[in-house]
Specification:
Length: 285
């Protein structure tokens, strides 16, 4: 009897174990990949409970959430004008398409670590920096979207479209080689000096122009004053000339005459002349 109970208990345990082995839960954010005797089923399994035949079927899960891969190594690139630039601490945010999860599992060896390899990311970054000149290549706003676009193209060529979505490329550390930084610094200093000299020259020119304008205005004012004065004097002379007549001249003469008559001289060239007082003539009459 005891032996039968043991056998029954073993059978129950085996059934429970087989039942547990027949159930697979695909968690949220994952896809299930069903494998039957080593063959991968093309259609992925959705989230939730799934049944399988123990020892015949197995179900693996593929992460379809957003994931980050970080490259700590330094990548050297160059700008469109052949200036050397380096970048490091690069982060790539990506997501595996649920519909392509089974294909990724079947075709990409160790996909969790090799899906976005160092060489793939490096190639995309070098292709993107060569599109930008030195003055823009270190601008994250310009470079990161371009790097994301190039990386997406590389991934599409390697795995097919709509397999891996590149969401974002983040470059946390980027700079030029030391010699270029030194040259940039010297150029900046020279530019600042040039701009300062330009400002000073402009100030001097503007002051000279202002002084010349002031002198011109003053001279024009003096000239206008002289013209105005001359016109006024001419007008006064005209009015005066028009007001003088024969009667006014006689009246002026009489106003100034003291009553004495002038003396006259008569004579000829051959002899002395005779001075005659006009008053005597008037009295003789």
């Amino acid at each position: 009897m005891k032996k039968k109970l043991v056998i029954a208990a073993v059978i129950v345990v085996a059934v429970i174990l087989l039942a547990l082995m027949s159930i697979k839960i695909v968690p949220t954010g994952y896809s299930g990949v069903q494998i039957t005797l080593g063959q991968v089923k093309k259609e992925p399994l959705k989230e939730g409970f799934h049944f399988m035949i123990p020892f015949i079927n197995s179900i693996e899960t593929v992460n379809n959430k957003q994931q980050d891969i970080v490259l700590d190594s330094t990548i050297w690139c160059e700008s469109s004008d052949k200036v050397q630039v380096y970048m490091s601490n690069i982060s790539v945010t990506y997501q595996i398409s649920p519909a392509r999860s089974a294909w990724i599992y079947a075709n990409v060896t160790d996909y969790e670590r090799s899906l976005l390899s160092h060489s793939i990311i490096s190639s995309a970054l070098k292709s993107s920096t060569i599109e930008l000149p030195a003055e823009k290549v270190t601008s994250r706003a310009a470079l990161e979207p371009l790097a994301r676009e190039y990386l997406q193209n590389v991934v599409n060529e390697k795995y097919g479209e709509d397999t891996v979505l590149i969401i974002r490329v983040t470059i946390n550390d980027m700079n030029f080689e030391d010699s270029y930084n030194t040259a940039i610094s010297e150029k900046t200093i020279a530019q600042q000096r040039y701009e300062t000299a330009q400002i000073e020259n402009k100030t001097i020119i503007e002051k000279a122009e202002a002084d010349a304008k002031a002198s011109e205005i003053a001279a024009e004012g003096r000239a206008n004053a002289l013209v105005t004065e001359a016109k006024a004097q001419a007008e006064a002379n005209r009015i005066l000339a028009e007001s003088i007549t024969e009667n006014t001249l006689k009246q002026s003469f009489y106003d100034k005459w003291d009553g004495a008559l002038p003396r006259i001289m008569t004579g000829s060239e051959s002899g002395p002349g005779l001075v005659t007082d006009i008053n005597d003539i008037i009295d003789g009459e």
